[in-house]
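USER: My hope is that you can spare some time for a protein that puzzles me. I am handing you a single protein, as its sequence and its fold in C-alpha cell form. Walk me, if you will, through where the backbone shape changes along the chain. The protein I mean follows directly.
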Amino acid sequence: MKKTFFYIVSFFVPVMPLLAQKYVATDGSDTNPGTFDQPFGTITKAISVAVPGDTIYVRGGTYALTNTISINASKSGSDSLRYFLFAYVGERPLLDFSASAMGRKGINLSGSYWYIKGFDVKGAGDNGLEINGGSYNIIEFCSFFENRDSGVQLRNGASNNRIINCDSYYNADPPDYGDADGFAPKLEVGTSNYFYGCRAWGNCDDGWDGYLRGANDVTTTLENCWTWGNGYLKNGADPGPQANGNGFKMGGGDNSNSDQLMHHFILKNCLAFGNKVKGFDQNNNVGSMTLLNCTGYNNWEANYRIQRVLNPGQTLTVKNCVSFNGNVQLGNFAVQETNSWRSPFVVTADDFLSLDANLAYAPRQADGSLPKIDFMHLSPASDLIDAGVDLGFPFNGKAPDLGAFESDFITAVETEKFAPAEFRLYQNYPNPFNPVTMIKYEVPKNSRVKISLYDILGQEVMNLGDEEKAAGRYELRFNAQSLPSGIYFYKLDAGNFTQTKKMILMR
C-alpha cells in the first residue's frame, strides 16, 4: 500500500513582510513619519514603533553610531509573524560604531523571531552583534569587522538562531587580545544554533569558539563554513599566546573542563586553513563531535586535534575528511571512514586545482553565497574524487568526494549505465537555498517517476517532473524564484514507492 509521510517540524518559516514598511536614511529625522519620502534618522526609532510583521528598510550609506542598537525581549515576533530589519534593495548600510566607548556593543538582540539582512557592522566597543537570549532569529548576508570583541556572540540561552552567509573578520580586543572570535556560540549559549555559508578570518582569538561556562549539553551545527588566519591582528602581527588562533574550537569549560561540559558540534563541508594553532580543535570538549567532508590545510600545529576521551555515550565521528600539510591527532576512540590520512591515500599538491589561499577573500556572490573559487577544490586526476562513503548528501559520480568541496568532473560510471539497488531520494543541496538548489535521486529499474513539491500545509504547489526513467542516477535543478521563503517538502513517487525530504527556501 502506498504511504505518504509528512513530518511535523519545529523550525523557522521566514514569511514575507505582512504589515507596514518603515524607512531609515542617513539624511532622515526621527521627527519624520518614517515613510520612503520622509524616513527616520535612526534604526532605534524605527524599532521603537515597529510591530510584528513590519519591515524596517535601511537605506545605504554610513551611520556613525556611539550607542548600542538594542532590540529587547519585549520586541519579539512569532513563528508566523516576524520583525524584518533589511538593508534597502540594492544598497548596503554601514553601521560604524568606531567612536563608541570600549565595552559598548554594536547590536544587542534579546528579542526573538527577527530577520536581519544586509548590514556591515564595524568598530563596536565590544561585540558587533550579541544575540543575548534571543531565539529563532535569522541573520543573513551581514559582515562584522574590526569590533573590539567577537564579531558575533550568542549567549544567555540563545537558541535556534540561523546565521546565514555572514563574514566576521579582523575582530580584536585590546589590550590582552584573548577573547575576540569571529563567531562565538559560547558561555551560556542555548542549543540548536546553525551557521551556514559563513567565513571567519583574521580574528585575534578563534574563528569559531564554543567554550562553555554556565551551559551544558548543547548542540551547534556548521555547514559550508570557512575559517583561516586566526590568532593574528589585521596587520599580521601576533599579539601573543593569549590569542589562541584556532579555526573551529569546539568547546569545553574552565579548569581543564573540570565540570565535563559537553558542546556537541556538527561540521559538514567545512574548511580550516592557515590558522596559528589548530584547524579543527577539540579544546577540552567531552561531548559528541561529528566532522563530515571537512578539509584542513596548513594549520600551524595540527589540522585536526581531538584526543581527550569523551564522556560516556558520546562519540567522535570523522568521515570523508581531508588533511594536507598538517598533523592529524585523533584519539583511538574516533569512528573514522575514508579519510585522506588513511590507506590507500597519499595527498599531494597535485590533488588540488589551487593552493592560493588569497582566493578565499573573494567577494561573495550577489545573493550572499560563498564565492566560486578553485582553492582546495580537487583536481580532475585526484584519487580523492569518488573515494568517500555515502553519508546521505548529494554527490556527483559514483560516490562522494573527500573534503569540503564536491567536484563536478565526470569521473565515474555514466548515469545511464549506473544501476542502483533501490529507489532513493537525496537531500537537496545546498539547503537552505536561495533561489536554486539541486535534487538528486536514484531509480533501480525502468519506472515512471514523479517529483512533486508541497508547502508546509501539505498542499502540492508544483510538479517538478513526471516521466518514464531508465535505471540510473538523476539530478534536477530547481529554481524557486517564484516562491516565497519558507519550508517545503519534495516527494518522489514511483509505483508503490514514495519518499519525502524537507527543503528550506531562505530569501
